[in-house]
Amino acid sequence: MYGDDIHLRLHRIRAERLRHEAPRARPARPASSPHAARRARRLRSRLGWTLVEVGLRLATPRPRPAPRPGLAARL
Q1: What span, in angstroms and rounded, lies between the C-alpha atoms of 35 and 41?
Q2: How many CA atoms lie within 13 A of 53 on its CB side?
Q3: 7, 18, 38, 65: least CB-packed within 10 angstroms?
Q4: Which 8-state DSSP code applies to residue 1?
Q5: Does pTM top 0.70 for this prediction?
Q6: Distance separating alpha carbons of residues 56 and 58, to the nearest angstrom
């Protein structure tokens, strides 16, 4: 179609500009220690298992209590 090549060209120009600006926009991260990496991994693991547990609780049907006899059944 007529405008497709122009649209694609504009996308490529914009992507090139964003790639050029990306290193300046990204904040510098301090080098993390092995201890910090281990803590982060432990936290991710704990969070993951907590989400699994919540999902299983939501997916498991709750047992219904047995019907209790009413006043008429006692008389």
Answers
A1: 10
A2: 6
A3: 65
A4: -
A5: no
A6: 5
Query: Which positions ≥6 away from 40 have C-beta within 8 Å?
Result: 32
Per DSSP, 70 falls in state -
Residue 75 DSSP one-character state: -
Beta carbons within 8 Å of 32's beta carbon, 6+ residues apart: 40
Q: Is 2 helix (H, G, I), strand (E, B) or coil?
A: coil
By C-alpha distance, which of 24, 3, 2, 1 is closest to 11?
3
Domain range list for the chain: 3-59
Which pLDDT tens digit goes with each residue over 43-68? 999 999 999 999 999 999 888 877 77
Amino acid (1-letter code) at residue 3: G
Three-class secondary structure assignment of 26-64: CCCCCCCCHHHHHHHHHHHHHHHHHHHHHHHHHHCCCCC
